[in-house]
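Here is the promised in-class demo. Please do not try to memorize the tokens; focus on the logic of going from shape to residues.
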């Protein structure tokens, strides 16, 4: 079996950095659940900003390590693609949080929590997928995790239609509808970002299988 230790050169450092990046995405999803429970307390935005700062710092460390480390059997672009895709997750979650904190009273009673739960599931699956890199390029295990991410993303797409029907048909407040639509789409985008990372990892596994 192909060795990731060979692929990454001094691979442990890359494993650790990529796992930490996935962990920052999961922290952002966890902070989002807390924000929704609190009805948008502004102080909780610090958790999102911390997750994004951490992700940005990790992306910088990965870029620096790529310059200073000889990498074999894996294109540098693949590592950079993983890092870049991971960075977009907390960035999108933070954008949702900032907007939600502003308009929370106007969208009270709309169910964002169930979609946030899907996002949490997606980041957990992603953390498992990134963690599996340490164990080698096991295509069967990665395929299971990739299918799990795809299933979560499909469920998010399905759930996105449900509130639209209710809002469009029952609401007499067009501003409320527009705000809710914007927030739902940001949640969907965050889940799509998780899927994108999974696609990058799976393509790497296929390349070396």
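The designed amino acids, position by position:
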């Amino acid at each position: 079996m192909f060795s990731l230790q060979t692929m990454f050169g001094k691979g442990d450092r890359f494993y650790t950095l990529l796992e930490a990046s996935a962990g920052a995405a999961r922290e952002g999803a966890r902070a989002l659940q807390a924000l929704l429970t609190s009805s948008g307390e502004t102080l909780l935005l610090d958790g999102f900003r911390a997750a994004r700062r951490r992700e940005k710092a990790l992306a910088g460390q990965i870029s620096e390590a790529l310059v200073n480390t000889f990498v074999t059997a894996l294109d540098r672009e693949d590592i950079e693609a993983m890092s870049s895709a991971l960075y977009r997750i907390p960035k999108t979650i933070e954008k949702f949080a900032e907007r939600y904190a502003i308009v929370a009273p106007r969208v009270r009673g709309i169910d964002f929590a169930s979609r946030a739960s899907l996002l949490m599931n997606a980041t957990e699956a992603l953390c498992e997928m990134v963690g599996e890199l340490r164990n080698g390029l096991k295509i069967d295990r990665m395929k299971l995790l990739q299918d799990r991410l795809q299933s979560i993303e499909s469920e998010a797409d399905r759930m996105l239609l449900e509130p639209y029907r209710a809002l469009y048909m029952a609401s007499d407040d067009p501003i409320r509808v527009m705000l809710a639509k914007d927030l739902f789409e940001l949640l969907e985008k965050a889940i799509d970002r998780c899927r994108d990372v999974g696609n990058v990892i799976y393509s790497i596994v296929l390349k070396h299988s």
